[in-house]
Amino acid sequence: MGGDCAPPEAPAAKRQVEAIPGLSPLGNLDFQSNEPLVVDESASIVSGKFHDGKAKTLKELGVRSALGVIGEGTYGRIYKGTMKGKAIAVKQYLKGFHITSFREAVIMRYFTALRRSERPGPDAHWPLAECLKVARPNDENEEICVVMPFCPYDLYGLIKSGDAAQLNLAAIKSIMRDIVDGVDIMHRFKHLHRDLKSSNILINAKGRAIITDFGMTRRLPLNHPSTPQQIKTHENNKDGTGDARRMGRKPLSPKPSTRWYIAPELLLKDQYYSLPSDIFAMAAVFIDLIAGKAPFVLEKHHDKDSADYQYLTQQLQTLGVPTAKDWPRGVQLVADLNREKKGTWAAPSADTCLSISVHEALDRLIRRRFSSEYSAYPESCKALVNVLTHMMALNPAKRYRTGQLLRHPFFNDSLLPRASPPTNLPDKSVLDKSVARLTGGQGSFVLYGNLFKQLQEDKDRDRQRRGPKEAYRSRSHGAPIRRPHHHK
């Protein structure tokens, strides 16, 4: 296996903010502190104030607000405006200078500076959100604002509006490759995004995808192991922790991701998860784009814990229950969770698992979504199925890495159709989350529930309609997914 794979570090209870190599957090954020800048993780607030003469206000930068609020999150609001005649987005962080806001601002400046060495050409696409300026809203306000290029769409909006359902295979490939490209840059420079989801993928006016929202992102220690063999050693250890500590690994807070896109190891409370968790989330985003719904979505849940376990049950019923041969670390994680939740949760048994394999279900999905293009470009469609199957492997060590994905025939343009950014996108902003998400985008899948179960039911209906001999079947390609039963 190729590509980076190293587990993230955990934040200390109280520590000085680490400078990213070559970038001082204070200097690059364009403000100075009147006191040592300290992160108090318990309070989750960065202490220290702007120096009046250092950080300019938005007015001083020439920023003019035009359309008011176009997005809002836990820690900030996004406004659309103009600066020097160009459309920009201004993200204003609220609730003081929260550690999440500080982390995102530093990481955005880091990757913005990195672009100059990685892709210096003015026309080269940069798939990570850029920080053009850091400023204060006004003279009286010490909250922080980040000025970014404006993108008229986000992927979630295109999906829920039904516009993504009109995209052809070449456009889908272009969006997917941009996302892989962005995650590859992050992983090569030891950053784990931890919250990849459709709403965190922006689409610019040229139809190119850009990853945003780095509030949950963590930078991995430079001495962390990153080769596939090192992560495999960790995954195959009996409990994982002893080996991880010997290699300098530190635990990370579990379950930072949005449930629709979360990797199973996070739901299993593995505090030593690593870069492959981003790969799984990326696969869920791709399926959301293709099918119009994320692979695992619950309709109702009463509390956070019960929802987590329902998601985990859906995933294990689909991907298979860990075995000592395929994922030793997973066996231990399941056993630990069974003991912890005795009487309230248990791993699904073999007879409750789906009879359809992940590969067959994805092949059925691709045939259904790209019916005409599957006939015209069968090899490309099969390559897409192979990509998604490997990205969703239950064992994190067996998932494709970003380097492998970029070299894969589906993404390297060795197969037709070649990637082509989508054109004729609607002349509107879909950042407004008030629009109701369409059922399945294409109107063909129920929004809630397990997509793979729906594809199995679709297969069963096919068999009943056509008869067992004429029922749709797909031959397995690529590495098989281990099933906890003998169904072929």
UniProtKB/TrEMBL annotation:
Asked if Glycoprotein is a keyword of the record, the answer is: no
**GO CC list:** nucleus
Compositional bias per record (Basic residues), positions renumbered to this chain? 474-488
- Check the record and name the Pfam families matching this protein: Pkinase (PF00069)
Comp. bias regions, Basic and acidic residues: 232-246, 456-473
Residue ranges of region Disordered?
223-254, 456-488
Q: Which InterPro entries match?
A: CDK, Kinase-like_dom_sf, Prot_kinase_dom, Protein_kinase_ATP_BS
Record keywords = ATP-binding, Nucleotide-binding
Amino acids binding ATP:
91
Gene3D superfamilies, A to Z: Phosphorylase Kinase, domain 1, Transferase(Phosphotransferase) domain 1
Signal sequence span is none
Q: Where is the Protein kinase domain?
A: 64-411
Q: Where are the transmembrane segments?
A: none
SMART domains per UniProt: S_TKc
Alphabetized GO MF terms: ATP binding; protein serine/threonine kinase activity
What PANTHER family has UniProt attached to this entry?
Answer: CELL DIVISION PROTEIN KINASE
Protein name per the record = Protein kinase domain-containing protein
Tell me what organism the protein belongs to. Answer: Kipferlia bialata
Its taxonomic placement starts with: Eukaryota, Metamonada, Carpediemonas-like organisms, Kipferlia
